[in-house]
Structures are given as C-alpha cells and as structure tokens.
Amino acid sequence: MTARDVMTPNPMTVTPQATVAQVFDLMRELDIRHVPVVRGGALVGMLSDRDLAAFDVPRLVLEQGADALRRQLSTPVIKVMSSDVIFVEPDTELSDVVGLMLDSKVGAIPVVRPDTRGVIGIVSYIDVLRSVQDLLEEEPSAPRMIRHQREVAMRRQGLGPVSAVIVLVLLGALPAAGARAVAGQLRKIGVEVAAVDFRSIPGVASL
C-alpha cells in the first residue's frame, strides 16, 4: 500500500501571501487542520492548526484591542508556516509515511509530484485510520484457518480481538520504535493495546 492509495487527492492550498485570517476561515469552513502552502505550483510550506495556535483571539482582544487583532490576523502565512516541510511521493510505502509522521510528530504529510513538487494529495492520520478500517472490514474474507490461528495466538498473549487487529494492521510493517509510538497514540484515543510480539501471530505478514 502506498501514499497514492490512501491520500486525499487535490487538497486545498494557499499561497504565501494569504493571510492568517483567510486560513482560519478556510480551516473552519472545510473542517481541516492542515493546509499546504504553494508558490508557482510548488510546495514551499505547511500550515497546521498548531502553527495558528499562537493567535489567541480572545486574549488579543482583551489585552491589545480589536485593532491589534486585525493587524495580527492580516499577517501573511509565510511568516508563520513551517518552511522545512516534510513531503512524500505518490509511490512512497504507507509504512514509511506513518514512520515519518511518528518521527516528526506531524498529523499530515503532503504528497507531491517528484519532478515539480506540485501538491497532488495529502495523507493525514485520518486517512491512515480510514485505510485501517477498510482492512478491518476485509478481515472476514481471510482464510478461516489463518484467522483461527491468529485469534488463538492473541488470546495466549492476553490481547482482545478488536484492539489486536487494529494494532496488527498498523504495526505489521513498522520497526519496534515506531510500533511503540503508534501504540501510545492508540491508547490516547481509548484503544487498549497490550505488549505483543506481533511476529509470533500467524497471518501478520499478509497484512
């Protein structure tokens, strides 16, 4: 599975001259948290809701007044965007994309054309989880014997079937450090994760 298989195609982008106010409105209207910044069709930066967190609207109004707020919101995004942006190409393996997200602690990565750095998609943690959901729905079609062996191995290691499958799909191709990091993120959203040697569970390689 590659970035092309799971990405959201043709994401909304902005130019470096767009204002913070415009990006705020864009994120709210489209319910998104990450916006690539492009110049001349090529990726030059990335904006996330974390980059905009410094613009504390209520505090600015209370402490500095409405005029100060308007000045702050008219700031060009080039002054607040992340210019050292991480990106991948369409054929990058999904396991590598997830590894980059974990190592860099980012929630989304733009997908670009290798020759022009033109943005053709974006892979967010939501896209990754959606691909996991698809794999979970395909699980009943796996050979019955493999499923039975896997369930037995899970029970022996004290892992419930739902959380086990989620972790297996996400971590089957990740190194140990990446597996631990993803397991930590899953715990934060309420998924119970046990310490399991996934290589000992039949059928993991096929996922």
Describe what you observe in this structure.
With 207 residues, this protein is α+β, with helices and mostly antiparallel strands. It folds into 2 domains: 3-129, CBS-domain (Roll); 142-200, no CATH class. The protein has 9 helices and 5 strands, in the order αβαββαααββαααα. The protein has helices spanning 3-6, 20-30, 57-64, 66-73, 94-104, 125-138, 144-156, 161-171, 176-188, and strands at residues 8-9, 34-39, 42-48, 108-112, 119-124. The strands form 2 sheets. It has a 3-stranded antiparallel sheet with strand order 1-5-4. The protein has a two-stranded antiparallel ribbon with strand order 2-3. Strand 4 and strand 5 form a beta hairpin. 24% of the residues are buried.
Task: Give the class from helix and strand content and strand pairing.
Answer: alpha+beta
Tell me what portion of residues adopts beta-strand conformation.
5-15%
Reported CATH architecture of the largest domain: Roll
Can you tell me the residue ranges where pLDDT is under 50 for at least 5 consecutive residues?
161-174, 195-207
How many domain units?
Answer: 2
Shape: globular
- Spatial sequence of strands, sheet with the most strands: 1-5-4
Query: What do we call the CATH topology of the largest domain?
Result: CBS-domain
User: What radius of gyration results from the CA coordinates?
Assistant: 21 Å
Terminal residue distance: 10 Å
What about the largest sheet?
A: 3 strands, antiparallel
Mean pLDDT: 76
Q: Roughly how much helix do the residues carry, as a percent range?
A: 40-55%
Corresponding CATH superfamily of the largest domain: CBS-domain
How many strand segments? 5
Order of helices and strands: HEHEEHHHEEHHHH
Q: What count of helical segments does DSSP give? A: 9
